[in-house]
Amino acid sequence: MSKFTWFTGRGPALTQQQLQRREALSAPAAFDERPLHQQRFVVLDLETTGLNMRRDQVLAIGAVVIDNGAIDFAEQFECTLHRPDHQASASTLIHGIAPSEVARGVEPAEALLDFMEFVGSSPLLAFHAEFDQRMLARALRQSLGYRLQHRFFDVAEIAPLLCPQSRIRQGGLDEWVAEFGLQVHQRHNASADALVTAELALMLFSKARRQGIDSLCELERQLASQRRRQHAM
């Protein structure tokens, strides 16, 4: 029996090889008490046609890996998806992906299979992760008939948890980058944004260890506690 529940009904047209690759994708790893520096994380950033999570599409995926407490520059993922009907918009002008580049991109099913094989069983990190999670989940469902089950951690939620003295509560990535004094040479590009998010995450994990939060299980417990406090306010 498959380790995943596939969507039923009229699904995407996949080749036999694509079906086999989909079937072979790794299930997400269960959380444990291993120290954070022993975990592998995939840090993700998506570029999309806009911000509507029901209508807009993923244009590009950028990702880097944090492994053994450091960014592994030998493991990076960058891909532009083939969207032949894509037209430039105010949103896409920001990240600079031209319609011609999208038209030459990788067919979505292939690109998403490549990415999920890159992810393996690892949890994912993103800044304002709900957007990336929902956009990726919808793309996987539409292109592969695949239900995303991997756990996302939101760096925008982790940062105020570990930096209670900071005045930034609902800040964007640029504000937290400035707070930590990180040097950023490029932004609004999927790979560049994934890299700076990974750099920020490593600084936050260092703070977490000093605060006695040194496993995914404990980090999740602390985040859940923070959410309960916020909902009670």
UniProtKB/TrEMBL annotation:
Residue intervals of the Exonuclease domain: 40-210
Gene3D superfamilies according to UniProt: Ribonuclease H-like superfamily/Ribonuclease H
State if Iron is listed as a keyword.
no
Keyword entries, A-Z: Exonuclease, Hydrolase, Nuclease
InterPro entries for the chain: DnaQ, Ribonucl_H, RNaseH-like_sf, RNaseH_sf
Reaction(s) catalysed by this chain, per the record, are:
DNA(n) + a 2'-deoxyribonucleoside 5'-triphosphate = DNA(n+1) + diphosphate
Name it.
Answer: DNA-directed DNA polymerase
